[in-house]
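step=predict obj=Queuine tRNA-ribosyltransferase n=373
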Amino acid sequence: MQFNVDATCGKARACTITTAHSTIQTPIFMPVGTVGSVKALDMADMTELLDTQIILANTYHMYLRPGDETVAKMGGLHGYTTYPNSFLTDSGGFQAFSLSDISKPTESGIEFRSHIDGSKHFFTPEKVIDIQNNLNSDIMMILDDLVALPATQERIKTSIQRTTQWAQQSIDYHRYNQSKGIGINQNIFAIIQGGTDFNFRTQSAEELCAMDYDGFAIGGLSVGESNNLMYDTVEHTTPLMPADKPRYLMGVGTPEDLVENIERGVDMFDCVMPTRNARNGTLFTTFGKVNIKGAVYKYDAQPIDPDCQCYTCRRYSRAYLHHLFRSREITYFRLASLHNLHYYLWLVRQAREAIIAGQFIEFKKDFYARRQS
């Protein structure tokens, strides 16, 4: 991986990340393709209509189905899916958290039952890397111990201890593999934990950032805490992260979350929100949200957002999208997902241009002014 900071404006950064498969300009939003597919879209949509340079796939889900060995035989994620650009793979730690009724963290890893057939499995830090080696993702996330908030001080302390221990095992194993010719072109990120306790965040960041990782993520947020507390935690944590490596905020979030955390020095984001909300009838625009299921749109000939140049807005009216949604027509899911992802990608590109121009504060003011108007 090559990484360069192209410009800064306050704490906000415009950077360039180069992997074996693509050049990624940050701030960047990564569409979520959990099982190797962004819901309702194909890879031509991702490359030709949305011009994405990186998407996310999930280790847990790809391991269970179709199986990481199957993916490896089919040419890794790139050969299997035909997506030519970069993949980031999550480690499965979040799934252990979100499926807590069928999973259990231990000192040596995470024990869980498959949500598909109930079969038992056990993820260790090393096994998670083996799976991601088979997937051949460009950026691998390590196994971490994620906890819901609020949590007791003792539980957060345990989370940090486990995460640091697993991080050391992960980096040692990855570098050993590379010495044997395995994962040569793959990069590895550690995940900082600590809840919203600044002392714990400092401890986790210092312990992890002392290790030889290619980048660092902030995990364990947007899991029950208030937005302001999340923003304060990010603001505390980013200065503790190396300035010469990528900074990734996992699982966040709304357009406002992106703008606020770009201002606080975050480079990379992912979230299911744009595609999930699209499928449920909520469309993001420069002036706020549109609930396309509302009867007010039945005869509305305008595009979703008159300022948007996405595939959907250049061709179809709110009235048509309203009709498709009410009819539960499959075409709606594609058109709505294209629009929402285009908006997110447009937003981070606008942020990048503002940072390079030294006008991020003005960009942020305009972002909120449009929504208030």
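step=describe
The mean pLDDT is 95.
step=end
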